[in-house]
Amino acid sequence: MQNMGIRPDGYTMVGLIMGLSDHCVLRVGETVHGFCVKCGLILNDHACSALVSMYSRCKSMELACRVFDSLVQPDLVSSALIAGFSLAGDHVKALEFFRELLMDGGKADPVLLASVLAASAQLAIVGPGCEIHGYAIRHDCNMEVAVSSALIDMYAKCGFLEMGIKVFKNMPKRNIISYNTVISSLGLYGCACEAFQMFEEVLGEGLKPDETTFAGLLCACCHSGLVNEGWEYFRLMNEFGIQAKTEHHVHMVKLLGMNGKAEEAFDLIKSLPEPVNSSIWVHFVVL
């Protein structure tokens, strides 16, 4: 492009930076960042937001903060930085920046709300989650699928499963993501029958279950000690064209091992292609 004498604009750089984000190529990203500074594109809000996201995905929050601090209007890129902290596992920082954004008069869209709700869920602190829920209601975005699904997950991980189920029941529209969130939440609480009922509802609604759906179902079987049902759902994955991944194998190994079927668990591991993920062996060894 440069050889042809064509000068890249902000949108071109956004595409390039996001491509680097997907592959976490930090050194190349820093080079592109330098090019943006040289060409004056560092003043482009979209390019800056992409840079913050790129550094966040590369687990380099210090560089992400430098980009943010250099902005004249940082509120325009706040969402990217908050989501970045959450992605990097610094959930406390994510919530702190979110509060600062609101105190400075900024507004949050559904994507950002889902991000900070996820941070609250990971911290298992219901207070901030309730505050975010209230904000979502006041700004009429609590019924957005992304926000509702994040609320369900947050309440469940904070020990308030009934509140999460209530949010789910109040949703005007539900997709496979919202169903998956409920199934996974029920699974964590060992509510296998309810999780199975939700799965039947998924099929009744004509939705296609995915790998997350079955991970939640296997988790429910694992927490409830339902070996036969676990095998049934594990085999059912093939009918939906879903290939079992490490998470599914871990659930099955735990389910079998904790219910006196260590030999079956070992046979399952031996049937897997090499190399077998180390986490599967770890869960087998600690049984």
From TrEMBL:
**InterPro entries given for it?**
PPR_At4g14850-like_plant, PPR_rpt, TPR-like_helical_dom_sf
GO molecular function terms listed in the Swiss-Prot or TrEMBL record: RNA binding
What UniProt keywords apply to this chain's record, in alphabetical order? Repeat
> What stretches of residues are PPR repeats?
175-209, 210-244
Q: Does the keyword Transcription regulation apply?
A: no
Biological process (GO), any one: plant organ development
Q: Does the keyword Repressor apply?
A: no
* Name of a matching Pfam family: PPR_2
Question: Could you tell me what this protein is called?
Answer: Pentatricopeptide repeat-containing protein
Q: Which source organism?
A: Sesamum angolense
